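hey so u asked for the seq, here:
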Amino acid sequence: MAASLSPLISAGAMRSRLRDIAGRTLHMTLPAKRIVLGDGPLAYVMALLEPDDPFANVVGWADNFRAADLEGYRAYQRRFAYIDAIPTFKGSSVGALDAELAISLRPDVIVLNLSSRSGAESSGFARHMEQAGIAIMYVDFRSHILENTEPSLRLMGQLLGQQQRAADFIDFRREHLQHIANHLTPAPERPSVMIERAAGLYDDCCLSYGDGNFGELITAAAGDNLGQHWLHGPFGTLHPEQVIAAQPDVILVTGANWTLYSPAGSWVNLGPGADLEHGREQLRHLMQRPAYRTLNAVHAGRVHAIWHPFYDNPCHFIAVLQIAKWLHPQHFTDLDPDAVFAELHRRFLPVPYQQGYWLSLEEHS
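ran it, structure tokens below
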């Protein structure tokens, strides 16, 4: 769904008409000056588009930027110490958004991911905001990220008055996704990939991805995502028996610093500056679970871990680069995803690049 904007003149002030990713029309004065981020990781969009002071106009946000990505949060905390004082909504679901708190913050707009729409409506949150005259704007960096990231970035650029920065980042993203497509033509054989979502964070095995989100990234990297054969929608659970029977060619798990969720968990800590050797030890431990320990991919060392927050982040194409290099090393001998991500930080983000976003079970694979 494309986003659009057109000017209106009302009561002597320039106003604008926005069409969000849900196809809804909003009217507001732009650029917005008081913004609530209903999903904490939208902080990365703010950082891309307003790097000088990304959170100056953020009057509230969900606390899952910090809780679900502690290493990333700390990187921005070091540069912008005031973010600790931004009011937070506890929890990562729309149900955790306190309508009374939201209204008290007097925002011009509340930005939500499209996947939150049904929750916002069923919980009554959307109705309360409408009654208070507060706009809700839907973007999508989560469900269908390859399709909806560009229009969502353009929409956020319009909201912030940063259309050119949005366009520049879109061009950078397109350039590198096209690089992958060019090197995978003609299409190679697609290795089967088992991707476990948030491995070690929960007792259950194995949370995975279907035909959206990280599943799309595996497909873009010319992999055959195991989950898409059984799961309906972006997310779901595969049984260990399904994984064992499928004998996937490659195992991939997502990880981050989830200390605030599960201090004793066996998750793989990834993110800026993460200790990769410790993460590798955690990955070895995860591969001893029943779903994996007999798999040929594990014994061959074709096991990798990647930063979980790529899943709702406009920088997700960096994950496509790294996954493609793992799946098809012969096609990408000269590809350096670390160098590309470092360039992205230099050009678009206000914090320095630090390695730590991915690792392999075998250090040099």
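Residues 5-13 have pLDDT under 50 and may be disordered. DSSP finds 14 helices and 15 strands in the chain.
lmk if thats what u needed
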